[in-house]
Amino acid sequence: MPLLSLPTEILRQIVQFSVPSTLAVSSYLERQATLCALCYVCRRLLSIAQPLLFEILFTPWPETLVKILDALDSKGWTNLIRQVGLQGQFMDPCETKLLARLTKNSPSLHTLALDNFFNSEVDLTILQSFSSSSLLTQLRVDD
User: Fold this and answer.
1) What percent of the chain has pLDDT over 70?
2) Which of 13, 30, 52 is a domain's end point?
3) 43 shares a domain with 73
4) What are the tens digits of pLDDT across the range 88-131?
5) Domain residues for 111?
6) Residues 90 and 30 in one domain
7) What is the pTM of this model?
8) Which of 21, 29, 77, 98 is most buried, with most CB under 10 Å away?
């Protein structure tokens, strides 16, 4: 039986299990490269792999997160975000609105990892923007 003749749900599980689901940088880059490659194979794999590109996000740059959130908003895909890893620059009080946007518009977000390599103060009042029904199960702040 050809792989692409499988039901979409089975094919999606195969794709999901074939890519790492971690916020470690090297694994994240491998995951994104694999999913991007699958997007070019055919339209069916594009429809499966493209949303998976946005389940796990990792970026050290606020500008990149703004572009990602804008793209997801335009497609109505903000509910796809499950894990987010952010580094240093997001600890700046100027970026509080961006973190508020992320937490408010990402109802499926369950892991938020903040890498505080600038050793600045971390304002955790941002967590107040999570709704009481939010499923945030892990917050990690690394110094």
Assistant:
1) 75
2) 52
3) no
4) 665 566 667 788 788 888 888 888 887 755 555 555 665 665 55
5) 54-143
6) no
7) 0.78
8) 98
